[in-house]
Design brief:
The chain has 3 helices and 9 strands. The protein is α+β, with helices and mostly antiparallel strands. The strands form 2 sheets. Strands 3, 4, 6, 8 and 9 form a 5-stranded antiparallel β-sheet that branches. Strands 1-5-7-2 form a 4-stranded mixed β-sheet. α2 runs antiparallel to α3. GO terms for molecular function: molybdopterin synthase activity.
Length: 152
């Protein structure tokens, strides 16, 4: 599901398409954050990840982050695409592009966006490790959803 600037997708993310959404003649800077699946997490070898989302609410949360950014950093434009489903090592999980007249605002807004995604967007992660699997829970990993019968 997506709108013009914010999307939750089940296919590979094309970074250039996300960047094109924020390009503007007024932009003196565009920053891009690309979050990828890493192999090692806290000393454990990750084989793959699986993301699930409450998609309609996730898109609304991404829109909210975009509005917050536009309020905090006037004249910025943000586009965010997050992938769900099974992702292999090095695949792209999220792309955030921010354009702004000046680079500092673009950097700050981009960092703000990824932190807010982890705080408020209803996306959950399951990690597949060499020695088993675990639902990590929310993206800040403060609330685990590991309950009897949920972990493999």
């Amino acid at each position: 599901m997506e709108n013009e600037l914010f999307a939750i997708v089940e296919t590979s993310i094309v970074t250039d398409e996300v960047i094109q959404k924020v390009q503007s003649a007024d932009a003196g800077a565009i920053t891009v954050f690309i979050g990828t699946v890493r192999e090692m997490t806290n000393g454990k070898r990750t084989l793959s990840l699986e993301y699930e989302a409450y998609v309609s609410m996730a898109v609304k949360s991404l829109e909210k982050i975009g509005a917050e950014i536009e309020e905090k950093w006037p004249n910025t434009k943000v586009a965010i695409t997050h992938r769900i489903g099974r992702l292999e090592i090095s695949e792209t999980a999220v792309v955030i592009a921010v354009s702004s007249p000046h680079r500092q605002a673009a950097y700050e807004a981009n960092q703000y966006a990824i932190e807010r995604i982890k705080e408020i967007v209803p996306i959950w992660k399951k990690e597949y490790w060499e020695d088993g699997t675990k639902w990590i829970g929310d993206q800040l990993e403060r609330h685990s959803y590991a309950k009897e019968g949920l972990d493999d």
